[in-house]
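Technical annex B. To support the medicinal chemistry partners, we prepared a structural model of the target in complex with (2R)-2,3-dihydroxypropanoic acid, based solely on the information shown next.
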Amino acid sequence: MNQHTNPDREARNILIANDRGGYTIPTEGLYPYQWNWDSAIAALGFAEFDIDRAWVEIETLFSGQWDDGMVPHILFHKQDEGYFPGPDVWGCNGPIPSSGIIQPPIAATMARKIWEKDPEAGEVRMRSLFPALLAWHRWIMTWRLDDHGAVCTTHPWEAGRDNAPDWDNTMVRMDASDVGEYQRRDTKHVNSDDRPTKYDYDRYIKLVQIGRNVHWDQRKLLDDNPFRVADPTMSFTTLRAARDLLIVSEALGLPADGLTEDIAKLEAGAQSLWNDELGSFDSRDAHTGEWSGSVSNASYLCWYAGVDSKGMLQRARSVLETVPYPFPSYDPSMPGFDPRRYWRGPSWAIMNMLAGFGLDEMGYKKEAELLRSKTADLISTFGFAEYFDPMTGSPAGGKAFTWTAAVWLHWAGRN
Ligand code: DGY
């Protein structure tokens, strides 16, 4: 039975309710600040009914950009005791109190989509944002590539897939015994079975301490950070961003030297993440070269990056047929699959949308449409949850979630 009779209105209301004036929180309570990739998706949602507000969202995000080009994963605009770790734990010195890591760079891609929706209204905004988007891209090319040209995540939060099995081998080698006492806040807002474990959290906080100890000096962190994993999320989104930046620069006659070379480098890096034995794009520990052995929903972002793969297409077709609510964040046939625990099984509407963009653009219209309609069923039946059990559709994590609402408005709800 369809409980959500007017999902368009509900989705718009969620964006409006989560708007804190220039930026949008992902959800009340659990995530009370501006998150980087959530915000880029929020902008896409706003563009469906308020294009000016869409631009403002991205402009506010870039108002937190550091002098070196880095755009933090969280901007702590207004202190909120309901979230840990806050600005005091990160100890950063950007223009706005922030975290010291990034998130998947999807802002350039979403800005291009917003600009294309109304090129006339968007041209001035795009022109003034472009140098900042390019500076962030260059920062990533400087500090996050491995020897193959794949893009690394230096904290599980950086790839946005906090407790994904991709990090298990690397996390097990980390010593977090001296992390000290701290008080989690996330499990006060949502069911702890849906969230990462204490073992994970100890390592998340330890990694923040390591970064803070060297004042987020990226050169030092290349050696000091035990967590450096080349990952499909970062690699595919960075490659896609480079392609979009090149298209915008050519269309508007903006200088952007080096993007063609970056794209070639990133294409080689993306291909290097193909794990032949696994038959999937996979993550790889940049320190040891060890594969993670993980088929995740990030593996399906290849088409979003313009990278075709027969192997992934076969998998996608089989998952679309056999899993009631695809794409699961971890392959259900793997022993560690957990249908409720965050990035270890649940389906995420935002990842589906990015994969759906790619499938559609590369001509896999049937698969793209199936993924879209199954995501639409999921949201219109179970609501605007943060993520969903891929077997039953049952909603999990935060409720009234900004990016799920934005995905509905821009993609899932448009047939
Ligand atoms: C959290 O706090 O759970 C976030 O995912 C960090 O980005």
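Notes passed to the chemistry partners:
The pocket of (2R)-2,3-dihydroxypropanoic acid is lined by residues 73, 157, 162, 186 (CB under 6 Å).
The radius of gyration is 20 Å.
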